[in-house]
UniProtKB/TrEMBL annotation:
CDD domains: AHBA_syn. Belongs to the DegT/DnrJ/EryC1 family. The keyword Transferase applies. This is DegT/DnrJ/EryC1/StrS family aminotransferase. It comes from the Bacteria. The keyword Transferase applies. One of its GO terms (molecular function) is transaminase activity. Keywords: Aminotransferase, Pyridoxal phosphate, Transferase. The modification N6-(pyridoxal phosphate)lysine is found at residue 189.
Length: 378
């Protein structure tokens, strides 16, 4: 069986370094907001090419804290509208809802999975104050176009970079395009801890200061509370593990890129629409390799029988979730079509060329059987 993701093997590569890191943290006896967190923040900010990084408890909190800080500093008002892609993971929307802001779901481009700039422009009304661009599956959204729209309409451009650590266009990485960006450090993400974690990046000193305070009871000086903050912190052990893995992030992204290339050259396109490869000067983080098929469910069953585990990101769009019944009347045909057609194939460092070829063969067998079948029908 080829598992969709093998986190055990992925992390086992660093066992020696992880053990040494545990030793350092144990010997210091300091577990929250110490040297490791500070060093991780410094190193991650430098990696992304921004001035500030703030470690937090998870990716959802990273987004919530950005929005809360924008509310605290008066740059957003309760009830302001935020544009969010319809086909993202629900956390992007939940962050907006949690802060008392309005969500406006916007269609993606079918071939790129990311926000369609034309649909964004058409969705802007007098209440719109921000765009939350999601770099879905590891590919940067069309940030030059979205930045231009944000500038012309005086909107805040924010990034949900939870799937795109290390993605870049020319020299500019995910996390360095918007007013602020939220990253998840959940184990399965391109940069993943051995537990929960998240980080915010920004060039804005006022926002960074507000988030540092909000993540820690509204306090930056012990027992002095300037804001009604919460508790969302990145602990020393996770920060230490993340510093080790950050050094291997570019190599891991390259390994996923190589697998994506192998898929894209080997897969039979008769039954599958393959994901667009990155443009000149662009680095895709390939968190997920997502193909589309009109026979998606049959293909998934076929692959399972052939020993290949796949997943669907995501089977039910936000406006079709019970949690968002108030959006149930919306019609988002591209988002809905994607939820019926997308299939994510295994892609991770350590997946061997033979395993990738096995996945390709299993997909191509399906294509051969299906095209034979459709030929007979006519
Ligand atoms: C994973 C993810 C999040 C949330 O991250 P957590 O660490 O699980 O809270 C937010 N947005 C997107 C697009 C994600 O993939």
């Amino acid at each position: 069986m080829i598992p969709f993701l093998n986190l055990q093997a992925l992390n086992q590569r660093f066992e020696g370094e992880f053990q040494a890191a545990i030793g350092h943290v144990l010997s210091r006896g300091w577990y929250i907001h110490g040297e490791e967190c500070q060093a991780f923040e410094y190193e991650f900010a430098a990696y992304c090419g921004v001035k500030h990084a703030v470690g937090v408890g998870n990716g959802l909190d990273a987004l919530v804290l950005i929005l809360r800080a924008l509310l605290e500093t008066g740059r957003l008002q309760p009830g302001d509208e935020v544009l969010v892609p319809g086909n993202t993971f629900i956390a992007s929307a939940l962050a907006v809802s949690a802060c008392g802001l309005r969500i406006r779901l916007v269609e993606p481009e079918l071939s790129r999975f990311n926000l369609d700039p034309q649909a964004v422009e058409a969705a802007i009304d007098e209440r719109t104050r921000a765009i939350l661009a999601v770099h879905l599956y590891g590919r940067l959204a069309d940030m030059p176009a979205l930045a231009d729209i944000a500038r012309r309409h005086d909107l805040l451009l924010l990034e949900d970079a939870a799937q795109a650590h290390g993605a870049r266009l020319d020299a500019r990485r995910a996390g360095a395009w918007g007013v602020a960006a939220g990253f998840s450090l959940f184990p399965g993400k391109p940069l993943g801890a051995l537990g929960d974690g998240g980080v915010v990046t920004t060039n804005d000193a006022e926002l960074a200061e507000a988030i540092c305070s909000l993540r820690n009871y509204g306090s930056t000086v012990k027992y002095q509370h300037d804001r009604k903050g919460g508790n969302s912190r990145l602990d020393e052990l996770q920060a230490a593990f993340l510093r080790i893995k950050l050094r291997h992030l570019d190599a891991d992204n390259q390994a996923r890129h190589d697998i994506a290339m192998r898929y894209s050259h080997g897969l039979d396109r008769r039954m599958l629409d393959l994901p667009e490869l990155s443009a000149e000067g662009e680095v895709h983080a390939w968190h997920l390799y997502v193909a589309r098929s009109e026979h998606r469910d049959a293909l998934q069953q076929h692959l399972l029988k052939a020993g290949v585990q796949t997943l669907i990101h995501y089977p039910t769009p936000i406006h079709r979730q019970a949690a968002y019944s108030e959006l149930g009347g919306l019609s988002l045909p591209i988002t809905e079509r994607l939820s019926e057609q997308v299939l994510s194939l295994p892609i991770y460092p350590g997946l061997s060329a033979q395993q990738v070829d096995h996945v390709i063969d299993a997909c191509n067998d399906f294509a051969a059987i299906e095209s034979n079948f459709s030929a007979q029908e006519h």
